[in-house]
Specification:
The protein has 13 helices and 12 strands. It is of the alpha+beta class. It folds into 3 domains: about 190 residues, Jelly Rolls (Sandwich); about 50 residues; about 60 residues. β4 and β5 form a beta hairpin. It is globular and about 55 Å long.
Length: about 325
């Protein structure tokens, strides 16, 4: 079925709900976002709901707000990191992200990075979109190609047509079906190919040296693209950026963290995603093999760090999946 004609997603009877309820629902699904109504205290026409299907998480978001903003403080407060593949179902939505501005019309897609500030503009007009939450570390570290965020695909672009068809297939496939893991991997690969880098964003990255914030944006991309490589370190990053290691350390100190901690936590999130996939894979790796493949050399250190970050052991994830106790 064509996604844009799916009656469970579009052209349905929407209700008006209290602003606070809508805002809490959005934050529970997508993380720290700050919605703003046209008039203070107004209700919201629409809904923010989570859809779990085929082992993937979607946010179905409809509203008539003025705008929704996510700033650097919101980014820092969120433990999880995603790439949001956003598909506009009804209405129009303006997107300001990574220094670029786009307007999404029906059928158009854009890829948004949860680790960067974003503003969605609605201007009080009804908008309805679907957002697929893709694990950020998996998307970057398992990719052999560069791909762009903040670049939209027009509705008639063959890549947009492909993504809509694949999402429609995923939404109609039960999680326990044999094809589910393959469909998820296909979705990862198809998204990377759909937003294959044109080279313009990569070129602009090399000019981001005029502030700590912009340098750290580039560092974040470099870490994700080289996450599992053994030589990834503060020294390696400073060399790639052409700055001193002291300057890089000061940049991270301004955020209240260290470069080593950021790399470790990203590797732990990557390992968690891989462990959650182990139960459905034949000839699955062991947890130790996942830890080594994520860049850890000491299994005891990996287990301790995993417990500190997620408040559960790697074996709990293997037994309970994403529903492990105190899952982040």
């Amino acid at each position: 079925m064509e996604l844009l004609q799916n009656q469970s997603l579009v052209q349905r009877e929407w209700a008006t709900i209290p602003y606070d309820e809508w805002a809490d629902d959005l934050r529970g699904i997508c993380g720290n976002f700050n919605p703003h109504t046209m008039k203070r205290g107004d209700s919201v026409f629409g809904k923010a709901s989570r859809i779990d299907v085929c082992g993937m998480e979607f946010a179905h978001v409809s509203n008539d707000l003025d705008y929704v903003h996510r700033g650097w403080d919101d980014v820092r407060r969120d433990a999880n990191e995603h790439l949001f593949l956003i598909l506009q179902l009804e209405g129009v939505c303006g997107v300001e992200h990574s220094g670029q501005q786009n307007v999404l019309d029906v059928g158009e897609c854009i890829l948004v990075d949860s680790t960067r500030p974003t503003t969605f503009y609605f201007g009080g007009r009804f908008s309805n979109h679907l957002s697929l939450h893709l694990p950020r570390q998996l998307m970057y570290s398992e990719s052999k190609v560069d791909f762009d965020v903040a670049r939209k695909l027009f509705a008639d672009d063959p890549m947009a047509l492909m993504l809509r068809a694949l999402i429609a297939k995923i939404m109609s496939t039960p999680e326990n079906e044999t094809a589910s893991p393959h469909l998820r991997q296909l979705m990862f690969n198809a998204t990377r190919q759909a937003f294959l880098s044109t080279g313009t964003q990569a070129g602009s990255l090399h000019s981001l040296h005029d502030s700590a914030t912009k340098r750290l944006q580039m560092v974040d991309v470099l870490i994700d693209r080289h996450l599992t490589e053994s030589d990834l370190s503060a020294k390696w990053l400073a060399t790639r950026l052409g700055i001193s290691i002291r300057t890089l350390q000061q940049d991270f100190q301004g955020m209240g963290v260290t470069c080593t901690t950021v790399i470790r936590d990203k590797r732990l999130r990557f390992a968690r995603e891989k462990i959650e996939q182990l139960k459905e894979q034949r000839n699955a790796k062991t947890i130790a093999e996942v830890a080594y493949s994520a860049g850890f050399n000491d299994i005891s250190y990996f287990n301790r760090s995993f417990k500190d970050l997620f408040d559960c052991a790697p074996t709990d994830i293997l037994r309970f999946g994403a529903g492990a106790p105190n899952a982040v």
